[in-house]
Design goal:
Layout (H helix, E strand, L loop, with lengths): L2 H13 L2 H8 L3 H15 L4 E3 L4 E3 L1 H32 L1 E7 L4 H15 L4 E7 L1 H9 L5 E7 L7 E10 L1 E4 L4 H4 L7 H5 L2 E5 L10 H4 L4 E5 L2 H9 L5 E3 L12 E4 L7 E9 L5 H13 L6
Parallel strand pairs: 3-4, 3-5, 8-9
Antiparallel strand pairs: 1-2, 5-12, 6-12, 7-10, 7-11
Helix pairs in contact: 1-2, 1-3, 1-4, 2-3
């Protein structure tokens, strides 16, 4: 019996809603249904009574939820004990960062301060995409991350320390038609007729976010921020981000405010998983909280 099916069952037993459970597990409702069916086949019993309007646990389902919850708690405790034992031996803290984060203003001073304060800890530093950072932090593959995150981004289960808040802006090169025509204000209608550049995501853009709501003539996803900057230079498309991305504020790009109905902020943050029990990680978190003003920019 695959342990992941037990984990899927426990999430569904808690949510009693296939769509919400599938979203939390980052899988499709169809995939969740298949795994639950396989688990029921392995156990030889029905765990849920499902109608078009509701999902309820059967008597066997209630018993399995109780027993499997005990097993999951024991499993998590064992994993924590093993990770703690290994880290106490190796003293490694894994830090992920989004490459466009301002290096001279934030990343380099922070790494220097941490290395000086915690001489016995080896900081393993990894560059990743924004999606990759969030996912690897939640999975426990990273201990903390430094990144830019928009207002509506889901950091559930994590604690964040905010270094800087900046408004998202429309960014174009001096070659863009808006600049050549002398535009000073960009409207939603202007954006709807133009071509937007988006960073590639592992999943779809959230419908409640700016990127999910904004209309455009075309939407081009690029693999990295560097690629976006190169595409912007061509003068045919626009991007939306804050000028806190690395050295973007020192470039010759032109910035416009977003229309009122689309305005949102980006936060430059350090994020930790709340249930990370590694004492070294807790010390690092405490240090960053205490000295966060030293790294504001």
């Amino acid at each position: 019996m695959e342990f992941r099916r037990i984990e899927y069952f426990l999430v569904l037993a808690d949510k009693l809603n296939y769509a919400r459970a599938a979203k939390e597990l980052c899988i499709s409702s169809q995939a969740l249904t298949k795994q639950i069916n396989l688990l029921e086949d392995e156990l030889g019993t029905k765990l849920f009574n499902r109608t078009t309007r509701s999902v309820e646990l059967t008597d066997d389902g209630i018993m399995c939820k109780e027993k499997f919850s005990e097993l999951k708690a024991q499993y998590d405790s064992t994993i924590d004990a093993v990770q703690t034992a290994l880290r106490s031996k190796n003293r490694v803290v894994r830090m992920g960062f989004f490459a466009p984060v301002p290096k001279n203003e934030l990343l380099n001073p922070l790494v220097h301060a941490l290395s000086s304060e915690f001489e016995n800890i080896d900081f393993e530093i990894i560059a990743e995409s924004m999606d990759g950072l969030r996912n690897r932090l939640k999975s426990g593959d990273l201990d903390f991350v430094i990144t830019n995150a928009h207002d509506f981004e889901d950091w559930q289960g994590c604690e964040t320390v905010v270094f800087h808040v900046a408004p998202a802006q429309i960014i174009v090169s001096s070659k863009h038609p808006w600049v050549k025509s002398g535009k000073e204000i960009i409207t939603a209608e202007d954006m709807e007729k133009a071509d937007i550049l988006l960073l590639r995501k592992e999943g779809p853009y959230e419908f409640n976010s700016f990127y999910g709501r904004v209309k455009a003539h075309s939407r081009t996803q690029v693999p990295s921020f560097d690629t976006m900057m190169i595409e912007l230079e061509k003068g045919k498309k626009y991007g939306v981000f804050p000028m806190v991305f690395n050295d973007a504020k020192h470039t010759d790009f032109i910035c416009f405010d977003l229309p009122d109905e689309f305005r949102f902020n980006y936060r430059t943050i350090c994020a930790f998983k709340k249930n990370n029990k590694d004492p070294d990680v807790k010390k690092v978190l405490s240090f960053i909280k205490k000295h966060k003003k030293d790294f504001a920019f």
